[in-house]
Each structure stands twice: as C-alpha cells, then as structure tokens.
Design goal:
Layout: E1 5-7, E2 14-16, E3 21-26, E4 31-35, E5 44-47, H1 51-64, H2 74-86
Antiparallel strand pairs: 1-2, 3-4, 3-5
Helix pairs in contact: 1-2
Length: 90
C-alpha cells in the first residue's frame, strides 16, 4: 500500500507524508505550532526541513494555513525560527 503524499509549501514538490514536517494554525492560541505527531486539529501545511524550503515556506505559510491578516506576524515567524534550528543545510 503506497504511503500518503503531501506537497511541501517551500519547494512545491510532492513527497511522502513521513518525509515532511507538519505545521498547523491554532486559532485558539493565535499561533502556528509544529505538529510532530501529525495529529493536531486544524488546517495544516507540510514543509521539508531544509533551509531553502523553510525560507520559501515562511513566505507562503500564511496563505497555506489561511491565517487571518489581522494576526501579528510574530506568531508565525517565531515558531518558524525553531524549525530552522532543526533544518538540514541541503
């Protein structure tokens, strides 16, 4: 049975779900969270943990997660900084 595939919001290349990291918008917290177990409720987006993907993905995450324009951008950029610490240099 084939593994589910998702598209990276950074490079826009399809890959297996297990090869990507899920981030989710949690409106009750007004924050973007890393979803390590891929089970948090809410709209999610997937990204490779590679610096080029994270760079492009940070610009696209707001639209991908449908984050309201009234939200402070720091609620998105601060969690993204923690993803960069996990990133590979490829």
């Amino acid at each position: 049975m084939p593994q589910p595939e998702r598209t990276c919001i950074g490079c826009r290349i399809r890959d297996t779900k297990s090869a990507l990291t899920r981030v989710v918008w949690q409106p009750e917290l007004a924050a973007v969270s890393l979803d390590e177990k891929q089970s948090l409720p809410g709209r999610g987006a997937y990204v490779h943990l590679l610096l080029p993907c994270l760079e492009k993905g940070q610009r696209r995450v707001r639209g991908a997660l449908r984050i309201p324009g009234t939200v402070d951008w720091r609620t998105v950029s601060e969690p993204w900084a923690s993803l960069r610490t996990l990133a590979k240099l490829d």
